[in-house]
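Researcher: Next entry in the queue.
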Amino acid sequence: MWATATPKTDCPDPGDMDYETPQFYRVIQYARRADRDVVDMVSGSPDWDPPAGLREGLREYADLGADEFQYTASVGLPELRTEIAERRGVDRDRIVLTNGAGEANHLAMVGGLERFSGDEILLADPVYPYYAGRANFVGADVDFVPVDDDGHLNPERVREAASDDTAVIVVNSPNNPTGAVYDAEAMAEFVAIAEENDALLVSDEVYDHFDYTGRFASALQFDSPNVVATNAFSKSMAITGFRVGYAVFPPEDGPTGELLDRARTRHMIVNVTGSRPAQYAVYRALETTGPDYYAENRDRLQGRLDTFCAALDAVGAEYDRPEGGFYVMARFDGFPGSFENVFELIDQAGVAGMPGEAFGESRREWIRFALVTPTVDEAAERLVEYFE
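Model: Structure for this entry, 388 residues:
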């Protein structure tokens, strides 16, 4: 049984939060040192198998000639870029394959700061900490827009916050950590706000295969020179270790074409190129994997959502059932989402979640739980036993 914790009263502004320290590893390391077994609900690494075609692609690659073991094009394996371009309805030349979605977001955000006149990046609050950490790393001014009570970023709030100082607006759908999914109407508004303020919209769509509403809309459908869409195969194919992501930039011959040229150059200087075997395996998986693979994984996660949300209901927790993605944010009365309380959950309940305070101010009372573990049932039971 837990004792009521005393909420902190000195709540900092999100801009003052420590986004430079890797907070995820702080929690993971604490859980690994625990004197008991702990269900990891911190990590966003899927626990299911990748597509069969991916393994087949790796086996094929191992038997290819020596020339196939050398550098591929800096912007990525041509066959994979062609496959992505056909699926996204864009010209192949607009695509840069990256070291995961992390590099794609970095290239887009830095490029936006260079190309547009402002010095500010607008982020949602709560925010995936790596966006804020990246903004701090490059010395940008950062402004946070709180989400509404339902976890959605309200376009009107973004419009009010945007100004001539704004260079980049970052939107993530389906969202980590809130699970919000933005439909075509909302995405059109985000695009329009970027255009109105001569800014770049960076749309991180890495969880696009985990939309449970059927309403997800890509920013690419609006064909704007003020949009870069980023993505990766880390989540959709359960291969976070392969680091195959991509960014789709505006056309090189358009008004913001220098974004693409600078991204190619920066990517080449930092990486030379990406992993050719990983890109080949992803290409073969795309060729051979049908929609049933993705549907099965969505069904798996929705079953886990049912189980976990039932446990939250049982203990009277406040939560918004996610519309997409891997994560549930919950608030337990009298038990704020601090690192101290998360460490107590690890020690006393054997469940590791991510403290809300790591994501900013608006959900600092909450705790985020990742459902990419086969022991969600066990975690749910432990939380009910602890909080009842």
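Model: Residues 66-288 form a domain with the Aspartate Aminotransferase; domain 2 fold (CATH 3.40.640.10).
Researcher: Noted, moving on.
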